[in-house]
Fold this sequence. Notes:
The protein is α/β, with parallel strands linked by helices and about 200 residues long.
Amino acid sequence: MIKIGVLSLQGSVVEHMNSFSRISGVTAFEVKTAQDLDDISGLVLPGGESTTIGKLLKDFGLNAPVITKAKSGMPLWGTCAGMILMAKEISNESCTHLGLMDISVSRNAYGSQLDSFTACACIPAISPKDIHLVFIRAPWIEKAGEAVNILATVNGRMVAAQQENMLATSFHPELTEDLSFHKYFADMCKSYREQY
Ligand code: GLN
């Protein structure tokens, strides 16, 4: 069994837990403390409100341990607010959170809640079939460093990327029936566990 942690401070935690529960060989686990990070093979930073989750990460003493784990190679997947938490730069804000991934993101880039939308995209690295994408007050990636592989572009905007053990998506695969991203991340976690 691969044990995958879902950061459970705020946001779409239950939805990620449900998606992972549909994948055989994977067990999902709610992470709330630094100790919870000890025996997981990967961590999901869910969507929600990045300012709130960022503050709670610090309040719960999780900031430094998550950074250490990610730097040691543990897979990390940020969806929407989670992507903002991982970014080295937030172009329309002065602060950053974990600052792990070499991307600059624009927060609430598409506008307000009313500007939330769905799209369909072919993302060959993830699935041979088109994937249904749900964007809710989403960020997009404005700039990405050389080490970053852009996985998906929608309407000319970069919305999914990977940098080694770090995966980031502007949208919410956990709000759809499609398990492709969860399976892809589970495979990253499996390789990590086999290595360490
Ligand atoms: N707009 C939110 C933020 O900036 C992210 C929205 C989401 O995660 N669905 O944190």
